[in-house]
């Protein structure tokens, strides 16, 4: 009986993918805009701690970055203790003053009082190192500092 | 002249190209964190004369090498620190602070202007805990400043500061600045770190 005969060619119609490029482009533009190419290659682990009372650093070009943390997996030969990284290489506490001087020299003179030092320190580092860095910064009169943190609660997440 | 339709360009592979770029940017993206807790270090020159501060105006916070907290000679959990700091700062023991809502305990701080929080840590203290403690202490100040801002009818202090920085904010910035400075004077952030 022809009434119950299956229709010929009853496949699912193909999904229209014409708008797929649009969606992909949208995502692409988002990531293109949001991407910041890293200035420094980190040789250390840099897992920042969490805090919720944060303020934003407003001017990117007025920030000097000091990194600290223990050497990452590729640099195990430098030991397991937390170390300072300035620009692209490991540094000692004594190099901080020279680094600040170099950064200041590269900026316009009238901007120097507004320079902020951002400390990007791994959450597992101990305070001895930070204390030394802070002491060095005081010696060169770089008093504005910022402990860079991720936004989140200080409790719970470990 | 015979009209000829231009041959259509095949756009089928556009999605592939876009995907390629998308994946490249996805992989290289690191959303940089550029926010944190702002602090000001004390200048190095030491004044010779000793400033005499009454013991009751100092709120001592000690952090030992095992990340344990000792607040005013008592062991404390991190979660209780904020409330304790607020209670200390907002005490208003000498009655000169008419906006303080504390218990006016004569054994605690005189007024917010005199109240000093002293933070001491050891070399072995972990950075994470140190930041957590700093965060709680800053939070204590922020809570009090928010309260003060609400009292003069401005919402919250953080909102005021955000408005001040916002270029598109329509209100009167000079007046706002005055109010912000007043609140900062009412609850000055006196957080000293012992080396």
UniProtKB/TrEMBL annotation, chain A:
GO biological process terms on file: protein transport
TM region positions: 20-37
Coiled-coil intervals, chain numbering: none
Gene Ontology molecular function, alphabetical: transmembrane transporter activity
One CC-aspect GO term: plasma membrane
InterPro entries reported for this sequence: ExbD
Protein name in UniProt: Biopolymer transporter ExbD
Automatic annotation (TrEMBL), chain B:
Transmembrane among keywords: yes
One of the GO biological process terms: protein transport
A family per Pfam: ExbD
Subcellular location per the Swiss-Prot or TrEMBL entry: Cell membrane
Gene Ontology molecular function: transmembrane transporter activity
Domain of life: Bacteria
Protein topology in the membrane: Single-pass membrane protein; Single-pass type II membrane protein
Keywords, ordered alphabetically: Cell membrane, Membrane, Protein transport, Transmembrane, Transmembrane helix, Transport
Primary location group: membrane
Cellular component terms per the entry's GO annotation: plasma membrane
Signal peptide: none
Family: Belongs to the ExbD/TolR family.
Protein name in UniProt: Biopolymer transporter ExbD
Species lineage: Bacteria, Pseudomonadati, Bacteroidota, Flavobacteriia, Flavobacteriales
């Amino acid at each position: 009986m022809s009434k119950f005969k299956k229709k010929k060619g009853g496949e699912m119609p193909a999904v229209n993918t014409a708008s797929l490029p649009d969606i992909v482009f949208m995502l692409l533009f988002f990531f293109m805009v949001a991407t910041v190419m890293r200035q420094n290659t980190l040789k250390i682990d840099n897992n920042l701690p969490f805090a919720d009372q944060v303020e934003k650093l407003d001017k990117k070009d007025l920030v000097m970055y000091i990194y600290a943390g223990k050497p990452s997996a590729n640099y195990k030969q430098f030991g397991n203790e937390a170390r300072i990284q300035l620009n692209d290489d490991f540094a000692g506490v004594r190099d901080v003053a020279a680094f600040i001087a170099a950064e200041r020299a590269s900026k316009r003179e009238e901007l120097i009082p507004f320079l902020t030092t951002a400390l990007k320190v791994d959450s597992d580092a101990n305070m001895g190192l930070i204390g030394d860095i802070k002491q060095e910064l005081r010696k060169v009169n770089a008093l504005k500092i910022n402990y860079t943190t991720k936004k989140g609660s200080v409790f719970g997440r470990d | 002249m015979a009209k000829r339709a231009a041959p259509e360009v095949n756009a089928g592979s556009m999605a592939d190209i876009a995907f390629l770029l998308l994946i490249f940017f996805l992989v290289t993206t690191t959303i940089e964190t550029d926010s944190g807790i702002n602090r000001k270090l004390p200048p190095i020159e030491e004044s010779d004369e000793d400033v005499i501060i009454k013991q009751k105006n100092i709120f001592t916070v000690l952090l030992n090498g095992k990340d344990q907290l000792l607040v005013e000679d008592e062991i404390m959990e991190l979660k209780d620190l904020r409330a304790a700091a607020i209670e200390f700062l907002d005490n208003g023991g000498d009655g000169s602070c008419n906006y303080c809502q504390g218990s006016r305990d004569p054994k605690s701080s005189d007024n917010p202007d005199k109240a000093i929080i002293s933070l001491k840590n050891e070399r072995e203290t972990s950075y994470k805990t140190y930041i957590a403690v700093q965060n709680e202490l800053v939070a204590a100040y922020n809570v009090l400043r928010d309260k003060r801002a609400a009292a003069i009818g401005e919402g919250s202090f953080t909102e005021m500061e955000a408005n001040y920085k916002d270029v598109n904010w329509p209100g009167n910035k000079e007046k706002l600045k005055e109010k912000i400075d007043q609140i900062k004077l009412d609850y000055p952030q006196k957080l000293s770190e012992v080396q």
